[in-house]
Amino acid sequence: MAAIEVDQFVPRPAEQVWRALTDPDLLARWLMPNDFKPVVGHLFTFRTEPVPQHGFDGIVHCQVLAIEPPWLLRLSWRGGTLDTTVTWRLAPEGTGTRFLITHDGFDETDPAQQAAMNILGGGWRGHLVGRLLSVLGGDAQDG
Amino acid sequence: VTTDQLAAWSALGDRTRRTIFERLAQRPHAVGELARGLPVSRPAVSQHLRVLRQAGLVAEERVGRERHYRLDARPLRTVVDWAGHYERFWQHHARLLGELLEGGD
Description:
The structure holds two protein chains of two kinds. By secondary structure, chain A is an alpha+beta fold.
């Protein structure tokens, strides 16, 4: 199934990156204010600005689904019309750590989410989306 | 997402129509040109163009004696925005994590 995948190299050891993923205060500094606890089954929220055009009230409801220090943390991620899963993985790379984010579980019966996943995950990625965005950008004044 | 936008996306559920749409994203084409590169008949291409026009994705214009078809991607804007939103969200926050740890110690 299609997923959003993002990765980032961090020039620090995995244990240090792991702390930034699991310490609520550090987590708030790079992501959002939260009441996270590193315990499977723990229910918590992230709080941010609402995004009305996406039907999002600014609260992400989460549950810790899996935790394998210092390599993997999986959360359920529910907010607005989303009922999804976010997985954070760490992998050693040279003297640092690769941080891999997978956001998946989008509702494939929802046409908007399905279309979005087609764009992000399918063969459309890159060539068509780039052109589409430039076309849309050109029409921005009268759109 | 409005009904019009859903119509646009469901029109693109068909592989041949997606191919037509991608070609029109490069430049406007006449029906004959589109049909030459596709494994379907010219009447079938006209039929697909009609569906794309009804979905608001393609506009028709007369150039001399020919009809040219050009892309109108505006009905797709909301979903493209939506899709990019989450990818940008994670890219942004992953960068912030990197900056946080590089700055710390």
